[in-house]
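Can you give me the bound-state structure? Components:
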Amino acid sequence: MKQTALDKKFDKIRAMEEAGQLKPAKGSRALRKLMANRLAMVGLVIFSVILLMSIFAPLITEHDPQKINLRAMLKPPSWDHLLGTDRTGRDVFARILYGGRISILVGLGSALMAAVIGVGIGCYTGYKGGWIDTLALRISEIFMSFPQIILVLLLVSIAGQSLMNLIIIFVLTGWAPMYRMARAKMLSLREEEYVQALRSFGVPTVKICYKHILPNALGPIMVNITLSTAMFILAEAGLSFLGLGVPLSVPTWGNILNVAQDLRVLQNNWWLWLPVGSVISLFVLSVNFIGDGLRDSTDPTLQG
Amino acid sequence: MNKLFGMAIAAAVGMTSTFAYAERVNQLSDERVRQAIAYAIDMDTIVDTLFEGKAIVADSMIPNGSFKAEGLNAYSYNPDKARALLKEAGWDDSQVLDVVYYYGDQLTADLMVAMQAYLGDVGIQMTYRKLEGDVGGQLSKLPTAEDTSGIEWDIAYGAKAALALQEYYNGYKSGSSSYAPGDADRDALIARINASADPAVQQDAFKDFERFENTKLSDIPLYYQQLFIYESARMNRNGGQYGNDQFNYDWGITKWTVEPDANGKEVLYTNTAPAQFFEHPWLNPGIYVFSKIGLDRLLTANGSLAPTGGQLAEDYSVSDDGLTVTFDLKDGLTWHDGAPLTAEDVLWSIETAKKVPGINAVFQSTFEAIESMSVEGDVITLNMSQLDPNVFLTFSQFAPLPKHLLGDVNPAEFQQHPFWQNPVGSGPYKIAEVQMNDYVRFVPFADYHGGEANIDEIVAFPSGENDGNVVTNAASGRLDFGFTKSVADVASLEAMDHMRIVPADIPYTRSLRMNAFPKAASK
Amino acid sequence: MLTFIIRRLLITIPMMLVISFLVYLGLELTPGDAVSHMIDPEAAARMTEEQFAEMREALGLNKTFLERYWIWLTNVVQGNFGHSLSGGVAISTIVLDRLPATLELSVFALVFSTLIGCVLGTLSALRRGSGTDNALTVVGMLGVSIPEFFFGLVAILIFALNLGWLPAGGRLLPGYETFFDRLPHIVLPGIVLSLMMTAGVMRYARSSMLDSLSREFIRTARAKGLPAWRINLIHGFRVALTPVVVLIGFRLPTLIGGSVIIEQVFQWPGIGSEFIGAVRGSDYPLVMMIALLSVFAVLMASLIVDVLTALIDPRVRLG
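Here's the bound-state model for the whole set.
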């Protein structure tokens, strides 16, 4: 009989068993699974490298990202300027590093704040149920009925452009999915026996929600935070492209990439757009890998 | 509820930055500070590098030529002098200047970056932002009764494109500028530049004005912008002139030719078609394609916009005192829909334009000077209450519109009239098809009084003068003719083998408007 | 079935009302009212307070907020969406003008991405764990990680500017009557938009295929000795189709939002580029109306999806 993929897998498992590799290991099972996911680890490495380089930008480059030198504009990469200079003679490498600080802050910051708000509401109302639950559910439905970019642009048009506004807008558009997920998790967990036990001991509701149930829902929340981070970084870049993002005076990845709209730059000055475009893509990719790995490691129902 | 709360927060965050320096006395009202800013910016290097040499450093608002005073201070780059002036003026370096602009191009953003660096170098902090939304309202709003600034910004980067040289300075008249406080000496100078139609007398008045403004610096002039006309190798003006394409002049469009396509049809591609509605021609008389090829004026002008002869008018004259002007219309003129174009249409157009808010400033001052008008057959007579040096200039740019189609319009909502969805004109080309936001197709107007035009069809796409689409469309062979002021576009177009560039000198000065009015404490 | 649809409509309608109320509230919160937008600032300086009051009264602006909302709502229900601020053009006209372009692009991308996504996703599931599977996973991830405008610009650089195969932008040229005349213009934006969306479909198709392959009846079919291709395609795929229909349904509204940036990159004259223009120009009535219509599209799409899933998969109970 032809050996099927399933057979092969079982052979592998048997081999591993015989080699004593399948004994229960110490530490978190989810963490181990994550470590074993090659793509997630690659993602984590890329993520950390870009993040650390942005944070320690002053140690890595001596160039000031805002220092212009008109006589040295549009210079291709060289030892002095690793990624060349832009249209006002600023060092592109330094700008990408410093720009990363703001872009990552916008992406990660908005995702974390959206998670705090969404999960905060979701846990409480999901656990309590009743009218407060219905109300929160309806509000989230309203937010989720808007196509995301339409809602973002709508809020930009009302609030105007600034870094703070952008973060608030992202939080406003991003809390609803977090809320829905936390609530769903709550609904399934609140009937568990240990919760009933806690309740009968008279442990306060807030404590039950946030201290005893919430940790069990952390996996999916982490997944959601990473995926939202990726989404917000892309959204920041997209809004900057439309000229509706962070004001141009603030260096962000989106604002640096904005010059690619000029076809002459696109055709002649690759160092102005290709590196920063690649960094955005790589960073988002790494975050997505991490999110994917986290999902696989925390969700036992997902296969493959 | 959540949403409302969020909006409130968002609105509050947006507001805080604007009023941060509210209660201070305006430091920009000190002319030494304005001079320091002029010294601090190295325009020579900026023009050389950012502008790739395609602009001319300015020393006054008035372009170079016979109207320019000699020996003006050019405020060449001198950071030490700038610092010294600031020290003298007691500059408080905790103020962050709010600089605004309204162009969406990359070059402007780069210029702001450079300006921020140069000012920072002499100890002046600034931020910059692009005005969005109601740009006109944010840019110019007259000060309130207590002479408190009506506008929020400190410095605005913008352009003055003058149809007549007086326009550069008439806006400074006491009580009419939103950023330069009135001044009796300047009012006297303004009266002088408008007092005569004789160039020799005007010249002296202008030169005095330039010297006066050279130290005042109500605007810091930055550079003179050339206009660049581009054409594809497919088309040929056949001897037609080149000139200030932002306005109308005798460019001989009926004789233009273009290489026929595979089907033997001659189609010329251009841009500036509408996205939602056709712009009416009384504010910008010659920017948009319909205004350029679909409408005629009473008079025609040469490339430098000096009136040269009749277009709809066969004959015209002005009395010696300049107070009686007559136009004699050609016989048998018609609109594109076949209705006759009569002196009544012209009269109605002038009367309506007086009531339309926000028309071209030169038109407006001409029309305001008209005391009465009368029509006798084809002859229109204007009786002026005072001499207007630009009356013929106005009528070489002001396009009459059909009364029979627009007669019912409410002037306050002029642009909102359905006419502007598919307008009827009087020019060499008429509209054959409007696909709003896709393209507009023009075909020759067979009964045109100047003879039927050569090119079978002109197709216009809705990209503007200054957006990135100009280069994309030209690269893909879908732009045969147009004009731009964008230096970046010019460099890209020059690099294309099938495009040629014709630069034209135009009166167009980019400057920094300095808001010298004291700011309000808060709203 | 009918009761199900009616019940769903009964949920959707109050939702629409609440959202329309919020949108109207947003309109009220934006600076200035209709009068201040209608009158040129220069002209406004010459007007008296009485004149302003008269205009406000004529426009019904001095009524209470709720009364105004009611008038606005009845107008919207009757298809009178108000007027754009910049040119006074009826918003319904603008929307009807631009909608075909957006739908054209969206439908192209929807069909194309679904086809590719399903094929690749199925392939990936059948060769689970193989090099193909891993490569497709990484490519799919890349698809959701590259900023779409960046991808679009690079596509323009390569295919329109360097190779000159396709037009760089625009939608219609005069005299282009037939479908084939117009095809070249949609190819580049359509494919770029599709590729950005393929990843999601692929991932979804893969997991639902995996899910259905592990079902009882597949094992039964296998046990019966049916050829592998038949099992995979006919039995497996049919069950996997339900989630794909769900996915398509949920993508319908994202296509209206999803094409916003691509329309801008390729000068595609659709709702998206109109919306951006309106946001930039602070044309609030237009912004609000397009947002409201897109919400309406989302709610309708989710209704249709629910009905469709119920029709395809008998196991889904109508409830």
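A couple of observations. The first strand of chain B starts at residue 55 and ends at 57. The two ends of chain B are 27 Å apart (CA to CA).
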